[in-house]
User: What shape does this take?
Amino acid sequence: MATRDGLGSVLIGVIGGTGLYHLDNLTLMRRETVNPETPWGSPSSPIAICSLKSGTKVAFIARHGRHHNISPSVVPSRANIAALKSLGVRAILAFSSVGSLREEIVPGHFAIPTQIIDRTKGIRPASFFEGTGVVAHASFGEPFSIKLVRWLEVEVEKALKAHGNNVVLHKDKCIICMEGPQFSTRAESMMYRGWGGDLINMSVLPEAKLAREAEVSYALIATATDYDSWRPHSEVVTATQVIQTLRANADTAKFVAASILEDLHVAALQGDILSEERGSMKYSIMPRDANESEEDTKKLAFILPEYFGPNELAN
Assistant: This one.
């Protein structure tokens, strides 16, 4: 895929969450960072183009900024996803620190969720189509890319075993995305458990929704830092407790990323793990007005050139 800045094909993007602000165990290319400007502004941080041993390039962005100066509610998720796609990214591996809503998901454990319950409050722009004269209803019954998830379950488990710290990987879990920035009340935390939630964070939405609209495969590796607030005989979660677990989780996450990214790139080249998203928006976009504004068309062409090119106006 040709990219807007001449970097060539960067198929895999990594979004680092709290505690994971860089992949310093990979090699930065001579041209260390890029900072694509998108119709939705600039990304959270300059995007580091990292090189694997083979020379394969991977794009890395810090969700909350390099110095964690962006609160969850104001992360420029549209700019982040659009910037990654503009580099050629077809699959995003996102990392996020989470609270555990289950006794067996011990702080320090990893999880790969397959479902989301949205508890954000409409503050965050959740669609590339917002503010335009074009309407789209993306399919979101499976909010994560299942083929990518199943591939990751095998490879992440192998990497964790190789790391040797007895970190357990939990699969097929449901994550609650809350607004924040405050943590849950005890009543809320217990309610989420009753709903079937296993994990809780503040970041998976709107990322997953925007990746779907951009036809980019997306999966989340969740790293548990605490038990949220549901345990009746435990103190409620505090930022201090979270930070105590972050460093160990970040080191493990870097090891996992370095272990799987090469094979993930190869799998992406082969194409099957990306097949669910390709073309998925074709029938999600409502019939368009012949008088659609040039500004809207140009804006949406940045993220979906296949449908908003000069000759693509639907009748």
Strands lie at 12-16, 27-34, 47-51, 57-62, 91-100, 110-119, 169-178, 199-201, 217-226. The mean pLDDT is 91.
